[in-house]
Each structure stands twice: as structure tokens, then as C-alpha cells.
Amino acid sequence: MSNVLTAEGLEKLKVELKELKDIKLKEVAKRIKESKEMGDLSENAEYHEAKNEQAFLYGKILDIENKVNNAVVIEKSSGHDSVVAGSTVEIELENKNRTKYEIVGSEESDPLHGRISVDSPIGGALLGHKVGDMVTTNTPSGETKYKIISIS
Q1: For a Cys-Cys bond, which of 69, 90, 101, 146 suits 150, CB 3.0-4.6 Å?
Q2: Which of 17, 47, 73 is the last residue of a domain?
């Protein structure tokens, strides 16, 4: 399964992965070693907590490695006459309010900062449409119509 990311998003994942492997795992290993030196492991809460954190970190590392290894990098779009992953789209709502969204992969989605996923109702509905098109989508608040003003 592929994971759609911008180049910046892929780099963020690589940085996070490096931090988990080079810093966080070493910190937990040190805590495990120190707690082992305290004696009886069956009643050693610090040891069990550190082991649980270590298991969590291994799972997170595997997840990020999978995302990095299966990443499909999208380029910032320019020159496309229709909406694609990587496009920045200005839309006008029925109430004439305008907003801009960058269409990104689900890993990078941040609607409060104008980054919506290709898998979201709005992002998915915009894909393939051109300037001037009216797009209708079902959102949690009901059916909404948008007019595409610009694509960059």
C-alpha cells in the first residue's frame, strides 16, 4: 500500500524515525538497564513501564518505516489545469466565502492550516476538476457546493 506524501512530509517522517531510533530507544534501553539493577523485576513498576514504552516505540518505528518505504512523493503542482495531489486550490463556497486548500496525503492533513487530504470528502471531490467547475460533496455538516476559483 502506498502512502502519498509531499517531499516535506517525507523528510519530516525520516527525521522522526531517526529521533526514535537514535535517541528515544537509547533512553528507554538505559531506563530498562537501570531498573534491572534494582533487583526483583516482578514488582518493579519502572521496569515494566520502560518495557511497555520500548514495545510502543518499536511499533511506531515499524509504522513509520512502512510509511517511508511505501511513500509516493507528490510534487508541488504547477501547470496542471485540473486538481491533483499537490495542488493548491482556491474555492468559493455558496455563501461567497473563499478559502484555499493544499491537497496532500492523509499523513500530512491539517485542515486548520489549509492542508486537506486526498482521502477527505472535500479533497477527494476536488480531484480532477478544473477552474470554474462546481463541485458538490457530502461533509459531516451536509451537502456542500464549491466553485473552483484557481489552481496552482
Answers
A1: 90
A2: 73
Does 87 lie in the same domain as 64?
no
Last residue of a domain, one of 19, 38, 73: 73
Q: What are phi and psi of 6, to 5 degrees?
A: -80, 165
Which residues neighbour 29 within 8 Å (Cβ) at sequence distance 6 or greater?
A: 54
122 dihedral zone (left: phi>0; alpha: psi -120 to 50; beta)? alpha
The pTM (predicted TM-score) of the whole model is 0.71
Instruction: Pinpoint the alpha helices (H) of 3-100.
Output: 7-19, 25-36, 45-69
Over residues 87-145, the pLDDT tens digits come to 899 999 888 899 999 999 888 899 999 999 988 999 999 999 999 999 999 878 888 89
Instruction: Give the strand pairing for 98-104 and 115-117.
Output: parallel
- Report CA 68 to chain centroid distance, whole Å: 12
- Which range of residues forms the domain containing residue 86? 76-151
